[in-house]
Amino acid sequence: MHSPPPCWTQPLPKPNEHSSRQAAERQQILTKPPGSLGQLEQLAIQLAGLHGVEQPTVDPVRITVFAGDHGVCEEGVSAFPQEVTAQMIANFAGGGAAISVLAGHLNASLEVVNLGTVGEVPVLPGVRAEQIAPGTANLTVTDAMTEAQACAALASGDAAAGRAAHAGCRLFIGGDMGIGNTTSAAALACALLSRSPEALVGPGTGLDTAGVSHKSAVVSRALKRHGDNTDPLTVLASLGGFEIAALTGAMLGCAARGIPVLVDGFIVSVAALVAVRQQPDVREWLVFAHRSAEPGHQAVLEGLDAKPLLDLGMRLGEGSGAAVAVPLLRAACELHNRMASFADAGVTDRDQSESREGSP
């Protein structure tokens, strides 16, 4: 029997309030009206507190894509066949996937972790073979994972966080790949948020209206089989996927090691929801990149009290939406670190102007 990684139960560190305060004070003396850079100012202050420095940076960036197959595909819930999961792992390694292109563009390190696919995956550069099983079980008839399998997937995610920390990474992005995983994620979200499948189930890989209706019925069957248990590990094992569990472990592991996480779309946000339900303090280590076009994402964001940076109609997964948001974080840090203060630039600030106007 595997045990959950330590980050699953041990207290997580808190952001450095002194560094956050220093950063907030610096924002007030830069050559701009206070608040005029909007969310970019708050990003810089948040990152300063998370890194424990007055002037933060998010580089180097680590992207880890977790892949795994889902037994619920037996129910015909995807527009793509299940062998696509293994084929996409090869595409990641070959540099042809969206996240591969974005990682190169961002000069971010990219690794892929294969947690178990129906199709065979050969030895490939940049792909870690950490197979737990050929895929999860069909969640409509039994638990998707045994407790041991869920713990193994959590541990794989925690290990990825450990590798990122060892490499000195200052920002982590987790991506997902797994045909059928929007069904699993929707079931998890319904169970944790007490929402109906009709409200959260979407087209995933491109289902039509009839396909979405069928997928919603499949999720309803899974929820009925699961019952009303809301313990995070129980829900995760019952309704989740290997890659979703690994993403959960990675977020908790990054927080435990002081690494901020830039959260991608629907699948990764559901993993974040599981992580926050288990360890509420992990929420402070999460920055939400974008609002997915997948219908259930908005409810998950609301459940996490999250305001994403972008809304581009994306729903690809792989960590692609988070990767697109990296330049915003870099810009926030550059502006915060390199802008001149009023005193440095010899520019009269608002307080000086008001003081002069009030002089006799």
Summary of the model, kept short:
With 360 residues, this protein is α/β, with parallel strands linked by helices. It has 15 helices and 6 strands.
Number-wise, the strands total 6
Strand arrangement within the widest β-sheet reads 3-2-1-4-5-6
- Indicate the proportion of strand residues: 5-15%
Shape: globular
**How large is the radius of gyration?**
22 Å
Please give the CATH class.
Answer: Alpha Beta
Main beta sheet strand tally, sense and closure: 6 strands, parallel
Number of helices: 15
Q: Kindly name the structural category.
A: alpha/beta
Low-confidence parts lasting 5 or more residues at pLDDT below 50?
none
Tell me the series of helices and strands, N- to C-terminal: HHEHHEEHEHHHHHEHEHHHH
Number of domains: 1
Q: What CATH architecture do you see?
A: 3-Layer(aba) Sandwich
User: What distance lies between the first and last C-alpha atoms, to the nearest angstrom?
Assistant: 79 Å
CATH topology label: Rossmann fold
CATH superfamily: Nicotinate-nucleotide-dimethylbenzimidazole phosphoribosyltransferase (CobT), large domain
Q: Determine the fraction of residues in helical runs and give it as a percent range.
A: 40-55%
What is the typical, i.e. mean, pLDDT?
A: 95
